[in-house]
Design brief:
This protein is about 5% helix and about 50% strand. It has one helix and 17 strands.
């Protein structure tokens, strides 16, 4: 039985780097590489920038979810209002905070409607290779998610989790290919699920007001949790600790565009749709 899973995302990026760093970035090929919009929590870019990024996400929930071998009706939507922050300490090292915000959970059936705060994350990334002449950058990073949110919206559970990732980008003039691979590692793997995540984005700098892109994202569940008898996971925003999701993979594809409204202000819009079944939450 199939379910639907669709995301509409919008970001407004406010670049806030130090004057010397801002000039260096403006002259570099990274100025033509739009930041990812899809999978905003785990698709961390390799570039080292200082920015504040308000984020809005509208996600439609599947009509049904697999629970204990059966399918139960759910439907409805989730809205997320968040603010991502990145601070470039040097040209290679940055502090990142990619998860926070307010969650409005509105299922049509079975589950309870609720609103509350999301967990907060904090981490570092470091560009080990930054070859501007050949338009290539490689950046590993790590981020810790703290269980500070409200349990009514499936946050604040467990003992937190780590995201260990490797991000890279390669440019060919106005064309940029960006990718990220990583692992979500909970501090309590009996309770929560560990997951691999992978993302890719191909973007073209057609004009400063129009930078179209296509993207693909996937999550693979590595183990069974013991919190809920679900056959799917929450993937990007939620870790349900699903008992029957081990070995499952959620994949999605998306498209959108960036627009440079000002030297230090960018608007990003994206539409994303899952292409696997079951499709997760």
């Amino acid at each position: 039985m199939k379910t639907n899973h669709r995301n509409l995302l919008a970001t407004l990026t406010l670049l806030a780097g130090l004057p010397t760093l801002s000039v260096a970035l403006a002259e570099d090929w990274s100025a033509k590489a739009p930041t990812p919009v899809t999978n905003p929590v785990f698709f961390e870019e390799p570039f080292i920038r200082s920015e504040i990024r308000p984020l809005f996400m509208y996600q439609s929930l599947g009509r049904t979810l697999p629970v204990g071998g059966a399918y139960v009706p759910v439907g409805g939507s989730v809205q997320v209002y968040a603010l991502e922050v990145r601070w470039a300490i040097t040209e290679r090292l940055a502090i990142i905070a990619t998860k926070d915000g307010y969650v409005d959970f509105k299922p049509d059936a079975t589950l309870t409607k609720a609103s509350g705060w999301a967990d907060i994350s904090l981490g570092l990334k470091y560009a080990v290779i930054d070859d501007r002449e050949n338009q290539f950058i490689l950046t590993p990073g790590v981020e810790l998610e703290l269980p500070t949110g409200n349990r009514d919206v499936f946050q604040g559970n467990g003992q937190g989790e780590w995201d260990i990732f490797l991000a890279a980008a390669k440019g060919w003039g106005d064309l940029t290919l960006m990718g990220n691979v990583g692992a979500r590692v909970p501090n309590n793997m009996t309770r929560d699920t560990a997951q691999l995540h992978y993302s890719a984005q191909l973007a073209y700098h057609a004009h400063k007001y129009f930078l179209p892109f296509v993207a693909a994202n996937a999550f693979t569940v590595l183990n069974a949790g013991n919190q809920l008898p679900l056959g799917v996971e929450g993937f990007d925003l939620i870790n349900f600790g699903s008992a029957s999701a081990a070995g499952s993979t959620l994949a999605s594809v998306g498209c959108g565009f960036h627009s440079k409204l000002h030297e230090k202000v960018e608007l990003g819009l994206a539409y994303e749709r899952s292409v696997t079944n079951p499709r997760g939450v």
